[in-house]
Fold:
Amino acid sequence: MTPAARVQAAIDILDRVIEAAKGQGAPADRIIAEWAKANRYAGSKDRRAVRELAYDAIRHCGEVPANGRAAMLALLARDETLAVLFDGSKYGPGPRQEGEPVAEAGVAPAWLMERLAASDIEGDEAAALMSRAPLDVRVNTLKAERDALELPEPGEALALSQALRFDGGTPVEQWDAYREGRIEVQDHGSQIACSAARVLPGETVIDLCAGAGGKTLALAAAMENRGRLIASDTDRRRLSQLAPRAQRAGATIIEERLLDPGKEMAALGDLEAQADCVLIDAPCSGVGTWRRKPEAKWRLTPDRLARFAATQDNLLSLGAKLVKPGGRLVFVTCSLLDDEGADRFAAFLQGHETWRGDAPDLPLGRARGQGFRLSPFHDGTDGFFVARAHLPC
Structure:
């Protein structure tokens, strides 16, 4: 592909990303993968260049662009070398036209920037949400220890004892250590959130929103495969991904339970007031993961944010029913908005007077409300809110 053809390919992808964002369609990474599959003539360098152009444009534009071309034109203000590629050459973009729309530079749409500012996320800290994320792994202590593990690359030691960091794009999934379950890909912030649960071998633990099970596997390792670990979720497709992951990791104590939305206690009733710990990794806007999914800023609306908050409130109330006296509840969202973090946890404590806030001792993060916040700017992790509550005996 010529450089101009790469630009036009990125524009075509951006058109699809923008439409998908408006209609809650496929994420950008899937759209790019589909383009690569449909255009097998493109070599690996071409695919990488097109991907980088598309993501650069997404990160550069705040408001949802009018179209892919407007998004790509916005990059010209930062990279003048792109201007000469708008020359109308074969397979390339046509010449610039006077007065044609150019997308606005920024971190996110204006309404969302206001919400971030209200949560004290501004300036460099907001800009860090559009940076590139590294690749973190967790050494699976059911099969290995960090100090004794031999990998093709050494990785950077992080705050948690079993956490390692590599450059983004490092092919860890091709390593023997990954295939054999000795390492799992997991952001350092996510690992820290799991550590807040402080689970012990022999306990009864519920991962209420387990998804594909990344945090479930971390909990199983911390429990040393002893005790009872229930992984539940309402998403059958995501939950189905847990069993092969657990088998690879050697995690044998996990019980899966598929929940019916609004009727969760029908599947969890036997666990009422039985759990030592309930982890709620609640569905949220994903603001803290924008480094990996920057187009998510275009998918969020005030109404969706309000629905996420309502879901989080319901999950906190549900989780509280499952904890036995003396047990604990851990609330996690991968968001930096107080609407989905400190405000939700404060509302929970206010509405459940028997519960007490129990601030976890974390190696990174800053106090936010009655919990802690991890951020890309301050901690080098994805953005998280983490809080813990204790139910007195």
